[in-house]
Write a structure and sequence with these properties.
434 Repressor (Amino-terminal Domain), 2 domains, elongated
Length: 143
């Protein structure tokens, strides 16, 4: 019987690298989940964050799901754009995680935060804040 020069996958036995790959996927998924949370809390849309990272919206989706690994440069760009510390992306403790559901923000509230953050003039921001306070007080008086 002639032996083949090629080794089949079955004859090699279990891969030694497999556990490391699983750990890597787990970390990528954690960072992606935290990236999505930071984006939502910042009120940024996927296209806005993708543009800040210099990637497509589809690539951002892969980062957020953990299907693709973020480079250090893109991690740095993400935390700078989102205004969170780098450690935010690496926190594994679920109790410290703030999600949109925990924050209780609606789509309208997220839009309001996005628009408020887009105002560059601090004086104008203060006037908008006074307007919101006045509207809130007027609504309370009507009740």
């Amino acid at each position: 019987m002639k032996r083949s020069r090629y080794v089949t996958a079955e004859s090699r036995g279990p891969s030694r690298r497999q556990p490391a790959r699983r750990r890597g996927r787990r970390v990528d998924a954690l960072i992606g989940k935290r990236l999505r949370e930071a984006r939502l809390l910042a009120g940024a849309t996927p296209p806005q964050l993708a543009a800040a990272l210099g990637v497509s919206a589809q690539a951002l989706q892969k980062y957020e799901t953990g299907a693709r690994r973020l480079t250090a440069a893109r991690l740095a760009a993400a935390v700078k754009f989102l205004g969170v510390p780098m450690s935010f992306l690496f926190k594994e403790d679920a109790s410290s995680t703030v999600t949109m559901e925990d924050a209780g923000l609606t789509a309208l509230e997220i839009e309001l935060v996005q628009l408020f953050r887009a105002i560059a003039d601090d004086g104008l921001r203060q006037r908008v804040l006074r307007l919101a306070k006045a509207a809130s007080e007027a609504a309370r008086l009507e009740e």
